[in-house]
Amino acid sequence: MLKHELRKKYKNLRAELDASSTSDLSILLTNHVLQIPIWDFFYFHIFLTIEEHMEVDTLPLITLLQGKDKNVVVPKVVGDHSLENYLLTDSTRFKKNKWHIPEPVDGILIPEGKIDVVFLPLLAFDCNGNRVGYGKGFYDTLLSKCRTETVKIGLSFFEVEESMITDTHQSDVKLDYCVTPKKVYKF
């Protein structure tokens, strides 16, 4: 299946969700993250939720990471396809950008080479670990700057797409895991 077809399909499925169900599903998903062997790592990059798009609520996961004394890193869009990474602290202030993504106003920059784990937003994924995002390429660019051993984890309300994603590119970075409210997929 083509990415643009999957984007349409999964945006429609997400639109059927309400705030209560996204909250419940996000908590189930967060509990499944505990099954992944990532707890010896230190720097965890995590996206911040676009509530208007019914994305996975990452606050429970951020709370879990902070409770385990992990360094949580959050993104800020810079330029056309790039992200800067800021350490999340008690004093971090946020402002929504033009896509309604909460971003840190300023703070402590963390270089990509320090990031051990990246939690990725996505709309769909297939059984080979290919993913479909919003198509802007921000996370492919980020992941190309991270170490090859950085663990890449997608977060999805929906289970694996049975159809293969047929229009992948060489620059697309595959997932190591994808977590859903029902299970953890390992690739």
Automatic annotation (TrEMBL):
Give the Gene Ontology MF terms in alphabetical order: 5-formyltetrahydrofolate cyclo-ligase activity; ATP binding; metal ion binding
Family, according to the entry, reads as follows: Belongs to the 5-formyltetrahydrofolate cyclo-ligase family.
On whether S-adenosyl-L-methionine is a keyword of this UniProt record, the answer is no
Q: What class of enzyme is it?
A: ligase
Pfam families found in the cross-reference section: 5-FTHF_cyc-lig
UniProt GO BP: folic acid-containing compound biosynthetic process; tetrahydrofolate interconversion
The organism's superkingdom is given as Bacteria
Q: Coiled-coil ranges per the record?
A: none
Keywords attached to this entry: ATP-binding, Ligase, Magnesium, Metal-binding, Nucleotide-binding
* Record flagged with keyword DNA repair: no
Cofactors needed by this protein, per the record, are:
Mg(2+)
**Chain positions recorded as substrate binding sites:** 50, 55
Q: What is its EC number?
A: 6.3.3.2
Q: What is this protein called?
A: 5-formyltetrahydrofolate cyclo-ligase
Q: Which PANTHER family match?
A: ATPASE INHIBITOR/5-FORMYLTETRAHYDROFOLATE CYCLO-LIGASE, CHROMOSOME UNDETERMINED SCAFFOLD_24, WHOLE GENOME SHOTGUN SEQUENCE
Catalytic activity reported: (6S)-5-formyl-5,6,7,8-tetrahydrofolate + ATP = (6R)-5,10-methenyltetrahydrofolate + ADP + phosphate
InterPro entries with a match to the protein in the record? FTHF_cligase, FTHF_cligase-like_sf, NagB/RpiA_transferase-like
Q: Kindly give the NCBIfam families that the UniProt entry links to this protein.
A: MTHFS_bact
Q: Where does ATP bind?
A: 3-7, 131-139
